[in-house]
């Protein structure tokens, strides 16, 4: 799928000109991918007012030619480090004010680069590329949709093979295997598979605990379709629905549906978070919702914008966020329901479509 990387770099140039810099040194590998399409690592990108150059090494020469046609290359020879090669390029470029990514460059690298560039002013820049990444274009949304379908198909395949004697780890491994069979490169992140009381741990790692060791299992998973990712959470009931589970589940589902309805252009991130938080607090579980409502999704499984308390970000068309309220009761378990949601011109679109009504989540395990 063709992406307009040149357009992204042009938008970045507008941003860093406002910051009063001549060029930006991009050292975060994910940001390099976003701006060029290069999927390797150990490479930096220098974006100038009149062009751009990737600093890399001979291992990637062919790959760079295939993935980044039209982008200038600075291939460092063996024995010349990336910092040395970058400094040499910058000295030739006549750059006086260089922006550096404050959130990815180490202090040590910055100091060594400054020593080699005594006539260049290094200006820390925070979030310049990340802000662009928050708003997805059509191609990016299509790839997130694809990753969502891969995750959903893998999950449905797991439902048909899930057995009470399977361990959490076996079930997680099977889910990741099924996603790959449906085209995913890999899991978007280590799958969470948590039975009963372990579901009270929002980031529980799979163990040898059997799926049938309690009445329900929480599953948080996603697919990496190659570049872009999905992120979902569902709870499956493997026995009879207890009154307590039904109460908790209905509260979480109501909180999620109301929050999704609040996602639209112009909405404030913390206000959307508050919609779900009020539903859970009114039901008496306010202290048991222990994380933000959601996060941005794209090249990384966690990126901006965050739907969280005190976040003033204004939602814009093209943003993709997760909406994932939860209630966690130590000693009993937890319920979290998560979907991926696209902000549209007129409201929002839920990109993930797995059933989540109470009657839909019972499995014969």
So what's the overall shape? Answer: elongated
Strand content: 15-25%
Order of helices and strands: HEHEEHEHEHEHHHEEEEEHHEEEEEEE
Structural class: alpha+beta
* Number of domain modules: 2
Question: N- to C-terminal separation?
Answer: 40 Å
- The low-confidence runs, each spanning 5 or more residues with pLDDT under 50, are none
- Return the CATH topology of the largest domain: Creatine Amidinohydrolase
Q: How do the strands line up in the largest sheet?
A: 4-3-2-1-5-6
Largest sheet: 6 strands, mixed
What value does the average pLDDT take? Answer: 96
Helix content: 25-40%
* CATH class type of the largest domain: Alpha Beta
**CATH evolutionary superfamily of the largest domain:** Creatinase/methionine aminopeptidase superfamily
DSSP strand count: 18
- How many H/I helical runs? 10
CATH architecture of the largest domain: Alpha-Beta Complex
Rg computed from alpha carbons, rounded to a whole number of angstroms: 23 Å
Structural overview:
- There is one protein chain.
- By secondary structure, the protein is α+β, with helices and mostly antiparallel strands.
- It has two domains: 5-133, Creatinase/prolidase N-terminal domain (Creatine Amidinohydrolase, Chain A, domain 1), CATH 3.40.350.10; 138-360, Creatine Amidinohydrolase (Alpha-Beta Complex).
- It has ten helices and 18 strands.
- The protein has a six-stranded mixed sheet.
- Strand 3, helix 3 and strand 4 form a beta-alpha-beta unit.
- Helix 4 (82-92) packs across helix 5 and helix 9 (243-261) runs antiparallel to helix 10 (269-282).
- The relative contact order is 0.11.
């Amino acid at each position: 799928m063709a992406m307009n990387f040149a357009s992204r770099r042009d938008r970045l140039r507008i941003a860093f000109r406002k910051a009063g810099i001549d060029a930006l040194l991009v050292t975060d590998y994910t940001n390099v991918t976003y701006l060029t399409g290069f999927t390797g690592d150990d490479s930096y990108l220098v974006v100038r007012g009149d062009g751009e150059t990737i600093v890399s090494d001979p291992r990637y020469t062919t790959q760079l030619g295939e993935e980044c046609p039209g982008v200038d290359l600075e291939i460092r020879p063996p024995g010349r480090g990336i910092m040395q090669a970058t400094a040499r390029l910058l000295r030739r470029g006549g750059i006086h004010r260089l922006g550096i990514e404050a959130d990815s460059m180490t202090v040590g690298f910055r100091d060594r680069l400054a020593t080699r560039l005594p006539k260049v002013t290094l200006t820390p820049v925070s979030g310049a590329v990340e802000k662009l990444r928050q708003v997805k274009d059509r191609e990016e949304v299509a790839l997130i949709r694809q990753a969502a379908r891969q995750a959903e198909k893998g999950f449905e395949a797991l439902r048909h093979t899930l057995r009470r004697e399977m361990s959490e780890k076996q079930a997680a491994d099977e889910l990741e295997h099924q996603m790959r069979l449906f085209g995913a490169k890999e899991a978007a992140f280590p799958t969470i598979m948590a039975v009963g009381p372990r579901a009270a741990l929002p980031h529980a790692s799979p163990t040898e605990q059997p799926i049938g060791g309690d009445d329900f299992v929480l599953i948080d998973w996603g697919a990496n379709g190659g570049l872009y990712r999905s992120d979902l959470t569902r709870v499956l009931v493997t026995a009879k629905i207890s009154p307590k589970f039904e109460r908790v589940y209905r509260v979480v589902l109501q909180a999620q549906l109301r929050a999704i309805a609040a996602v639209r252009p112009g909405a404030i991130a913390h206000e959307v978070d508050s919609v779900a938080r009020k539903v859970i607090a009114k039901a008496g579980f306010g202290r048991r919702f222990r994380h933000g409502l959601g996060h941005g999704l794209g090249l990384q499984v966690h990126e901006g914008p965050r739907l969280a308390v005190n976040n003033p970000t204004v939602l814009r068309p093209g943003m993709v966020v997760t909406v994932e309220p939860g209630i966690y009761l130590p000693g009993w378990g937890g319920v979290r329901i998560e979907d991926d949601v696209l902000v549209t011109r007129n409201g929002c679109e839920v990109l993930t479509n797995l059933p989540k009504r109470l009657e839909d989540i019972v499995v014969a395990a």
